[in-house]
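Retro notes
What went well: the complex prediction finally ran end to end.
Inputs used:
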Amino acid sequence: MTGFAELLLSGVMSGLIIGLAGLAVTLVFGIARFSNAATGDTMTLGAYGALLGTTLTGSLIVGGLVGLLAGALAAVLSYVLVFRQLANRSPISSLLASIGLAFFIRAGLGLAFGHNQSVFQLDIVRPIRFLGLRIQPNDLKFAAIALVTLVIVFILLHMTPIGRRMRAVADNPLLARVSGIAPRPVMFTLWSMAGAVSAIAGIILGMKTVVSPEMGWDMLLPAFAAAVLGGIGHPVGAIVGGLVIGVAQELATPFVGFTYKIAVSFIVLLLVLLVRPRGMFGRVEGVR
Amino acid sequence: MLTIEKLTGGYGETDILTGINLSLETGEILTVAGTNGAGKSTLAKAVVGLLPRVNGRVTLSGRDITRVPAEQRARAGIGYVPQTANVFAALTIVENLEVVEGVKDRKQRIAEMFDLFPALNERRRSRAGSLSGGERQQLAFARALMTRPDVIVLDEPTAALSPIMADESFRRIGELAKTGTAVLLIEQRARQALAISDRGAIMDAGKVALEGPADNLLADQRAAELYLGVGH
């Protein structure tokens, strides 16, 4: 029973990371209207940024901020240099470009940092015992960072004028334009947010495990599955979807093994697309 | 106020508008009628800046806005109520009004809109997607009026309304014009629309086939037979 509860806890942690990546996917899909396959590699870039920042300054906090800024900057640049140029074409063009961009980021990181695994030098702390469960104090910190990120994103989207404009553009881009909403500030905010959220997911993942150029790419399928499960374009849905997939993956580990647990994401994705394509929180598109 | 000269354009390579000349003065209602496919909604999109390809000239108060993006036209004083998808369904009623850009004294203007449409005030925290057709139309009007536009373009505002709601809608449009707002009214209920209008234009195949004072068009035998439907 304790083993099951610990798997559940571990699943929640993985789920928060998957959920953050899914949130970045769903934010971009909701407003820019394509699935951004560079999300995973933006995560990796954030992790390497944080690693570099931590190495140079000796501070995890400063390192984390460097990683966050690196992710946001990379996302904004990808919008300015690639996705804005493709805005008037089919979403497939942007999707394909994002796959190319993902390869480009990964190759660049491999060139700059090599393909060996790197680790954050975190203090080794004794696990907390709670109701017979062993809980890593760092996991609690990571969960707190993930939750604070979610709260900030929620506040930005629902309690600020730019967030309102973003939701308006997501809902009806043409009506937003004839309501005087300029697309450019909305898109810059969107890409900054998506990049920062991806970077935070990557930093947490890197601190929990190891940092390598492939780490983010491996997270892409679970992130897409979380976004689809939650209802594409629905931020809260992406987080809930991430938690469901994270927990499902961890609980499946004793049966399918660590290597194949990622297949759970694929099965969830497939089932959702077959049974309920609009996901848990998605609404029927199109109104009169 | 608003002038349209030799306007051509469309969505792809084919011109849907094949040479439109129209003008609209302050406080005037101009009804644009015509058969389906005549190019009425395309004309509306060209005026508000949503038509991808246009040639010719559109001016607002003497300023050439032909190449001005839609969001800047909205801020410059052109309001628009599309025929469908005319509210932000995922936003609340009050958010639909708050989100509009280019509004002076935003809080006061929202209060004015709720005075004008009291039914909206009662449900101000409801999502726009949950509103009935009539309420949604009121919200669409309120959203477009937030900027106190000089010109408002209404694309078939009564299309989804019952006859009673349509009458109410026409009454409001008449009152709106009395405040000085020029109204470009695209309507299938052409007779009712012309009855509250100063002038009318009837489009056919991307051109203005007939134009003149609304009363003259209503009395015109050819217009009645071809475009307005015979009978009263």
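What we learned: The interface with chain B takes residues 161, 164-165, 167-168, 170-172, 174-183, 283, 286-288 of chain A (CB under 8 Å).
What to try next: split runs per interface for comparison.
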